[in-house]
Design a protein that fits this description.
Number of strands: 5
Strand order of the largest sheet: 2-1-3-4-5
Family: Belongs to the GCKR-like family. MurNAc-6-P etherase subfamily.
Structural class: alpha/beta
Order of helices and strands: HHEHHEHEHEHEHHHH
Catalytic activity: N-acetyl-D-muramate 6-phosphate + H2O = N-acetyl-D-glucosamine 6-phosphate + (R)-lactate
Pathway: Amino-sugar metabolism; N-acetylmuramate degradation
Largest sheet: 5 strands, parallel
Distance between the termini: 70 Å
Radius of gyration: 21 Å
EC number: 4.2.1.126
Function: Specifically catalyzes the cleavage of the D-lactyl ether substituent of MurNAc 6-phosphate, producing GlcNAc 6-phosphate and D-lactate.
Oligomer: single chain
Helix content: 40-55%
Length: 276
């Protein structure tokens, strides 16, 4: 398939090694400002994907991210932040990366070139038509992702793709293609830069909107967050203070007793109603 590989086009900037630090940073920032506008253009596609994810997760389905290199790492990162931020078990959003956990820190030779490996890894998780599989690849040409999306789609699984080239091979294998076109990278072909930023923004939007729709946020607060450190315990205590009008010590006691802001507030309201 022939398509426009914008991610591989030559940088708009030249002689980078001759520039001052200030010039480098200013020019990188100028390019980064293009990313949010590119993401804005694909909100309709993101909305469609989120709607499909929410529908399936309400029926017990899961969300899988699949990618290689930077794209895979971003998927794993987004998945790994769901439990602490929203108190969801780590079985609901799952990130898979070509080459496995070793690839999170080090390149794994040829891992992304195996077109069947991604599907095999999905099958190890008993993927089914209740789930959603989202492939992530800046270039849109990663065999690990393409093969997985192709076979997932054949099995009736909703598939999405996030790529930074238009009409890419992974987009052709997805029910919903999200393509923020950010243009050539500042360092030619270095897709960890603008392309990676665009992918991170899209993933943030997908997971955040999904969790809100699933009731894991109240007002604008992470009321189901895990209390894994003192900062979060203090944040949770202050949420309860604001919600219930309690003093710090009482709110802190309720939080420690119930283990989450949501449960502490709900329990307080239940007890109040019983005493009326």
């Amino acid at each position: 398939m022939s398509f426009q590989k914008i991610t591989e086009q030559e940088s708009l900037y030249h002689d980078l090694e001759k520039k001052s630090v200030h010039e480098l940073l200013t020019e990188i920032n100028q390019e980064d400002q293009k990313v949010a506008l590119a993401v804005q253009k694909v909100i309709p596609q993101i909305e469609k994907l989120v709607t499909g994810i929410v529908e399936r997760m309400k029926q017990g389905g899961r969300l899988f991210y699949l990618g290689a290199g930077t794209s895979g790492r971003l998927g794993v990162l987004d998945a790994s932040e769901i439990p602490p931020t929203y108190g969801m078990p780590n079985t609901y959003v799952i990130g898979l990366i070509a080459g496995g956990e070793k690839a999170l820190r080090n390149p794994v030779e040829a891992a992304e070139d195996d077109a069947l490996k991604g599907w095999k890894e999905l099958c190890e998780h008993q993927v089914s038509s209740r789930d959603v599989v989202v492939g992530i690849a800046a270039s849109g040409t990663t065999p690990y992702v393409i093969g997985a999306l192709h076979l997932a789609r054949q099995e009736g699984i909703l598939t999405g793709a996030i790529a930074c080239n238009p009409d890419s091979p992974i987009a052709a294998e997805a029910d919903i293609a999200i393509e923020p076109i950010v243009g050539p990278e500042y360092v030619t072909g270095s897709t960890r830069m603008k392309s990676g930023t665009a992918q991170k923004m899209v993933l943030n939007m997908i997971s955040t909107a999904t969790m809100i729709q699933l009731g894991r946020v109240k007002n604008n607060r992470m009321v189901n967050m895990q209390l894994t450190n003192q900062k979060l315990v203090d944040r949770g205590t202050r949420m309860i203070m604001d919600e219930l009008g309690l003093d710090y010590d009482t709110a802190h006691h309720l939080l420690q007793l119930h283990g989450s802001v949501c449960e502490a507030v709900d329990s307080y309201h239940r007890e109040w109603r019983l005493n009326q």
